[in-house]
Write a structure and sequence with these properties.
Blueprint lengths: L27 H22 L7 E5 L5 H10 L3 E6 L3 H4 L6 E5 L12 E7 L8 H10 L1 E13 L9 H17 L10 H7 L3 E8 L2 E2 L4 H12 L1 H6 L13 H10 L5 E2 L2 E8 L4
Helix pairs in contact: 1-2, 1-7, 5-9, 7-9
Length: 279
C-alpha cells in the first residue's frame, strides 16, 4: 500500500506520510514489495481477464516499486507502460523496455498524461481526501473502449479476530493513518456506484482477502508497517491520545504475527473496474 511521499523536489504538505514511511528509509522498498507480493496475483488475474495484452497503452498510477508496471511490460506484452508516482525511484532502479516513469502528483489538476487503454491505480485513492475528484480525472484518461481498474484496502476481518492485541493494533494503525495522512477506507465499497456515476460501463468488483500465516508476504507487510509506525501507535492520536496502545501491546501483536498460533484473515483489497464506452 503506497503511502510513500514524493520526490524531495515536490513540496510535501504532510499528506503523504513522510514522518511514517520515509522513501529512503531502511527497508522501505522491501515493505512495499511485501504488499505487492500479497496482492499482485489478484491484480494480474483481473487485468488478464479484461484482456490486457499487445497493442495496449497502459498507465499505472502510484506504481510503488513497479511490480505491476513491469508485469505489464514484460509478461502481458503491452506496447507501452507509463508508471506515474510522486517518487518513482523504485521503478527507475530496475528499468525494463516499454516502461517509462513520470514523477508527478496525481492530485495536480493540471496533470494530463494522455489517454490509455488501461488506467490502473492501486492503494492510492484511499489516502486522498479528494479521492472522488481524482477518480474522475483517472476516468478521463481512459481512451474509448479502455478500462479503469482501481483497488484499495478493505478491512472486513479485523473486528472478528480472537486476538485482542492484534485487533487493537490494527485499529490504532487505521486511526493513525487517518490522522496523519488522511487515509479513509470507509467509502471504498462504493466503488461500483462511483464508476457507474462517471459513465463507465461493464462495471464489476471483487474482494481478495489473504490469510495471515507467519511466512506470508502480507504478514511481513503488516509487521514492517507497524514497526515503521511504532511511535505513532504507542503515542496514539486525538486530543487525549485515546487510541494509544498500552505498554507492550504492540509487541504482543507482533509476536502473534510470528506465532504458529496465528489464525486470522488479513485486511483485504477491493478491486473495481469499468469500461469507457465507444463513441
Amino acid at each position: 500500500m503506497d503511502e510513500r511521499p514524493a520526490d524531495p523536489a515536490v513540496p510535501d504538505d504532510g499528506r503523504y506520510g513522510t514522518d511514517l514511511f520515509a522513501p529512503d528509509g531502511t527497508g522501505e522498498g522491501e515493505r512495499i514489495d511485501y504488499g505487492a507480493l500479497a496482492y499482485d496475483a489478484a491484480t494480474r488475474a483481473r487485468l488478464t481477464a479484461l484482456g490486457v495484452g499487445p497493442g495496449w497503452r497502459c498507465l499505472d498510477v502510484g506504481a510503488g516499486t513497479g511490480t505491476i508496471s513491469r508485469w505489464l511490460a514484460e509478461e502481458a506484452g503491452v506496447d507501452e507502460v507509463l508508471a506515474l508516482d510522486r517518487d518513482p525511484r523504485f521503478v527507475d532502479a530496475r528499468p525494463v523496455g516499454r516502461l517509462r516513469t513520470m514523477a508527478a502528483d496525481v492530485t495536480d489538476p493540471a496533470l494530463a498524461p494522455g489517454r490509455f487503454d488501461l488506467v490502473h491505480c492501486r492503494f492510492v485513492l484511499m489516502h486522498l481526501p479528494t479521492h472522488a475528484e481524482v477518480l474522475a480525472r483517472l476516468a478521463d484518461w481512459v481512451a474509448p473502449g479502455g478500462w479503469l481498474v482501481v483497488g484499495d484496502a478493505v478491512d472486513l476481518t479485523t473486528a472478528d479476530s480472537p486476538q485482542p492485541a492484534y485487533r487493537r493494533t490494527m485499529s490504532a494503525m487505521w486511526q493513525a493513518l487517518r490522522e496523519r495522512i488522511g487515509t479513509d477506507i470507509g467509502w471504498v465499497t462504493g466503488y461500483p456506484q462511483l464508476l457507474r456515476g462517471l459513465g463507465l460501463r461493464e462495471v464489476g468488483a471483487e474482494v481478495h482477502v489473504p490469510p495471515l500465516t507467519p511466512d506470508a508476504p502480507v504478514t511481513a507487510f503488516w509487521r514492517d508497517t507497524w514497526l515503521s509506525m511504532r511511535d505513532a501507535l504507542e503515542a496514539g492520536t486525538g486530543p487525549e491520545a485515546e487510541t494509544a496502545l498500552e505498554p507492550g501491546e504492540l509487541d504482543r501483536a507482533l509476536a502473534y504475527l510470528a506465532s504458529p498460533e496465528l489464525a486470522d484473515l488479513s485486511p483485504g483489497m477491493i478491486t473495481a473496474w469499468g469500461r469507457r464506452p465507444l463513441p
